[in-house]
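Name: Transcription antitermination protein NusB
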Amino acid sequence: MNKRAQSRSAARLAAVQALYQHEMEATPVAQLIHEFHQHRIGAIIEDAEYADADVPFFDDIVKGVLARADEIDAAITARLASGWTMERLDRTMKAILRAGTYELIARGDVPVGAVVSEYVDVAKAFFDGREAGFANGLLDAIGKDVRKK
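Structure predicted for Transcription antitermination protein NusB:
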């Protein structure tokens, strides 16, 4: 994986963490982004080194998800199984799906397959079970919905 791809992968992971924090604590966007810039991205915390991330890409994902939350949640909800709601999803999974859906909607420069693959990898960082497959199927379906030609 080249350096640009690695820094974008790190940005995606950090964005999911930031979105999770926002969901849990309602941290204001400017404060949230500042905290990640200053204390997370590229930092060493409890002997774990956070990779250098593509900071503008991180910012775009976090700000974009929060600015377009209703549109993103509608796209996700449209592909959930009958009887499922956003509220039923694990908060980490919500953050993963929201970030991935934002990229599918707003980042036409990133191929659908790359978005899906990257967020499946993020899901694998947080979950051991079927969740990665769930993220794969949902993001693939959303990609087909939003990138129709």
